[in-house]
Amino acid sequence: MSTDKITCLLNWHATPYHLPLFLAEKLNYFAEEGIKVAILEPNNPSDVTEIIGSGKVDLGCKAMIHTIAGKARGFPIKSIGTLLDEPFTGVVYLASQSGITTDFQSLRGKRIGYVGEFGKIQLDELTRHYGMTPQDYEAVRVGMNVTGAIIRGEIHAGIGLENVQMVELEEWSVQQGRPRDDVRMLRIDELADLGCCCFCSILFIGNESFIANNPDKVRAFMRGVKRGADYMFANPAAAYELFVEMKPHMNSEVNRKIFQRSFRYLSHDLKNVQRDWDKVTKYCKRLDIVNDSFVQNQTNEFLSWTLEPERPAGAVNPTVDTGVLAKCGCKGQAAYVPIEA
Hints:
single chain, alpha/beta, D-Maltodextrin-Binding Protein, domain 2, 2 domains, five-stranded mixed β-sheet, 10 strands, 37% helix, globular, SsuA/THI5, metal ion binding
């Protein structure tokens, strides 16, 4: 059945950092820009690049390293902007019960969880970097629920984000009577001497044929998202309440804390950062994901506003009080209830 709606597939289930996209729908910015957008959530985040590349969905969100890898695999996808810049990413663990320390070799003999195959590629490369082999640890594919797998004891640690899985585990730890700082991270950018964490920047991507055939719709989509982002930065607490109206499960303390932790990473101008693309392309070559002939699949041509100058590598905005916790209305609820993968 044909439709005049643009389809947009998230990289994961709806998460607080997706707020600018949902605001564009909630506040009718997409409609005012002359487009209709259907926001979809994947059953399996590993399928996103293939689904968009096949043309079954027009646009979507995906991490930078997966966007590069998808193109290298022959999926015709391209980044048209950035949603979330440089969240700290690494091996997340509970210090009190995992036996893991700041020494990477403490992962020897441990069960380490990852979401998709490129997480394992990263771990395998790091083991070689630190004088180990991929056989020195047990890789466990846990899908979307690294947090739940750690809580259930299925893995000793897992690859996660500072602004999502660490928040979930911190809230759970407090609930168990343990301190928040029991949750630790071995940051991959520091372990791999990358100089930044931009490989997990969340991008807006699209099917190349759709982009080429519908440039006006793509520009309208990005204008709508930019208006949503502008509203969010100006009114973070009010913006989050609108999100709660669309997604009632966002009215939890843990999701509000994820939003507050994510706020400093959200992109103000939505641009693809050339410095980050260069770093991640080089990293992908090191991981043998792409070769020297790879041409970056990204553009800023659909961003019609003035773009901010690039900041120094690794620079992030300071954490600010967004006001979302003051409006929580969820005191007494469980801080974190693990979601089955």
